[in-house]
Amino acid sequence: MAYSPSSIGYQNISVFIQDDIALVADRLRLTLGAKEEKSYFGGMQFQPNARLLWTPDNINSVWLAASKASRTPYLNETVSSAIALSVTPPSAATGFLPVQAVISGNRNLAAEKVTSLEAGYRTQWSPNLSTDIAAFVNNYHNLSQAVFVNGVATPAFVLTPVMHLVVPMTFTNSTATTQTRGLEISADWRALDWMRLEGAYTYIRMNAPPFDGINTDSARLPRSQESLRCLMDLNEQTKLNLAVRHIGNLPTATASVPAYTAVDANMIYTPHKGLELSVVTQNLFGQHREVSNGLFDNQTSQIPRSIFAKITWSD
């Protein structure tokens, strides 16, 4: 990886303001905010947000929210001059030479933007039980993607370190819009004085541009995810946390990950004030596959069972 120029100095400036307005005392509240950011790479970004909260009584609340946010480009996307990507093995189509894709930054790359709309409802069924439900829609614009220079793969012949072909690429902003929408439901129940249960369910759908052979459908997400956590205070010094999570299947254009269920456990022991000993186990009952995203392809890998211990000391 190389950068051009090799060193660079820049500054980012941001200003944030927020006002909390009581439209109806103790019942209806409006929160307005805005962030103005001047970035060396992304330029000027105005990011407003608004939230309306209605509490008709002491146990129910309804809220609506709208916001805009931006992600400024990374150094790799703007000032890099050479980032080596995946290598395609030799074949008859490539003249029996390996092909190395090399991507360079784009100083004119614009910031990615998202517009979010949310709505939610919360109720306190009892002092020990509460539930939340929220719906959301996110629209993404100007997403960064890799493209061939001049729009066509034009390989160059290189002799060193071995004979191979180099395909130059760069970054640009997608003109397509990606949308996610979904629903989240959660519950918090203190079943006993020493035991607390937390459950959550998420359903999400995505509308994204089809796989183009270069940029993987990395934004694809499993449609459903469920989780259940049990937090237990076994005594004043010992805590045991158990978590079960189920992740739905993840089909992509180049790889597929089946649904899986994983169990994690964490035991914490505090023998003295400031000293904490913990043992963490992940994927307690076996390994599962996950997908890692990159250019050209999605790679799946096995996530094994793991266990580790940690000692924490604080004054």
What are the salient characteristics of this protein?
315 residues, mainly beta, Maltoporin, Chain A, 13-stranded antiparallel beta sheet, 6-stranded mixed beta sheet, 1 helix, 23 strands, globular
Give a short summary of the structure.
The protein has 315 residues and is mostly beta strands. It has one helix at 75-78, and strands at residues 2-3, 13-24, 28-39, 43-54, 60-71, 80-88, 99-104, 112-126, 129-141, 144-148, 156-158, 164-173, 178-192, 195-207, 224-233, 238-247, 250-251, 256-257, 260-272, 275-282, 288-293, 298-303, 306-313.
Task: Walk me through this protein's architecture.
- The structure is a single chain.
- This protein has 1 helix and 23 strands.
- With 315 residues, it is an all-beta fold.
- The protein folds into 2 domains: 175 residues, Beta Barrel (Maltoporin, Chain A); 137 residues.
- The chain has a 13-stranded antiparallel sheet, with no helix packed on it.
- The longest helix has 4 residues.
- The chain is globular and about 70 Å long.
